[in-house]
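[job 4471] stage=fold_predict status=RUNNING
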Amino acid sequence: MELFLQQTVDGLASGAVYGAFALALVLIHRATHIVNFGQGEMATFTVYVAWQLAEWGLPLWLALAAGAALAFVLGVAVFRAVVRPVSRAPVETVVVVTLGLFLLFDALSLWLWGSDQRAFPSVFPDHGWTVGGVRLTAAMLGVLAVLGALAIVLGALFRYTRFGLAMRASAAEREKSVLVGIRVETMLMFGWGLAAVVGFLAAALVAPRLFLSPVMMAPVLIYALASATLGGWDSPVGAVLGGLLIGVAESVGAAFLSFIGAELRLAIPIAVTLAILFIRPAGLFGKQGVVRV
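[job 4471] inference complete, writing structure tokens
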């Protein structure tokens, strides 16, 4: 029983990172109906910038604040310069463009900082506690707290502020929003900038658990895509809960299914996602579409 509880807690910590990154993907998809495959590499680039500032002597919290600000500006710039011109192009074109963003920022990080892995400082202390035979660490609880705070802040923004309501309207009814005076392009730019900040936070949380490298977010992107698919691509809440479910399923499954090694851990969340989609194709919290023929 203690092993099960420990794996569940560990899975929740990993799932919080998956959920945060899936939330960034869902924010962009809701606003522009685009899946940004370059989101992880953009986040990695901004985390590298924060790491470099910390190496130059800037306090860690200031370096992270500067990285978040850069992430917002980068998200806005990418939307204006790259995504907006192809937003009404065929979906195949948009996929190729976002894959191009993946390669561009991966190459940029590799060119500026090389391929060597680097240690990224954790914002949480190294303390830990044992409760009922389950090991809890400050980093683990901190990651869950960040995800919870992020979900609450974004939920309040979208539900209770005029700006958030304008963003939701722009995403749902772009043409009609213009008629009531909403500056849709501004809302979409802000959405991409906000998603880039959320992606940066996810990358900054995962970097101390791994090592900072140009490709560190590539596997996280796969888990985040599975999380968003599981929760539903039009549901931020679904993205968060989907990430937590994926993290727990991976951790518990790898511990109790002895025939699954490290190489097949990824098969567990994929199998869980497929099983859910067979029952509910739109995801756990996605809206079912109705098409007339």
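[job 4471] summary: Residues 10 and 251 are 7 Å apart (CA to CA).
[job 4471] exit 0
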